[in-house]
Amino acid sequence: MTSASLLGACGFVLGFDDFDKIGGPRPGDTTTSTSSQGGSGGEGGGTTTAGGDGGMGGSGGGLGGAGGIGGQGGLGGMGGDGGMGGVGGVAPECDRDGDGVLSLACGGLDCDDDGDGHLVPYCPGFVGDDCDDADERVYGGATVWHVIPRLSGGFDYNCDGLENREFPTVDCSSACSGTSNNVFLTPLNCGQSGPFGRCIYDAANMTCTPQVTDNNRLLRCR
């Protein structure tokens, strides 16, 4: 017999050709297994492209229309008639005493317009001695001393044509002819102030020495 045969359990004769070869280890084989690590996973898909910028919003609404031209205002009412002006008064410089009669200087007949009791020199039919009928402090024979000039200027208050000084002034710094009492010790004009007192003369030495009794006395005139 060329091929081995076996007697089966049912009495059939089985040959080796009737058996299928079954894979797997055989008794006595040593099994060696090597585990291979799995490969890296493939790279993901391509980079996602960012979305594009949104479009710009539309412009706002259009400009408002121009306002309409205002209507023309009505005509203003006519003003009332002005009242009649009062009768003009007499200028004060022409009637200083307020008696209603103008001074001679203003074409009137008042020879004493300042009311000082003294008539102006050019008063018709009278001899007057008032050289300034606009200033009641000024008249012939006035005796009051003043440190303020007249309204028209100057210090001739008594109408004598001069500016009379209450006390004389002397220069006591130079040689003098004698002792002077109640004098201003420095040159002054009317209305000014300065040292007042005595200027004492020393006959032996022929010198003058000032003696001040008031450092700031006013020089009055008329």
UniProtKB/TrEMBL annotation:
Residues 28-37 have a biased composition (Low complexity). Residues 23-59 are annotated as: Disordered. Residues 38-59 have a biased composition (Gly residues). This is Uncharacterized protein.
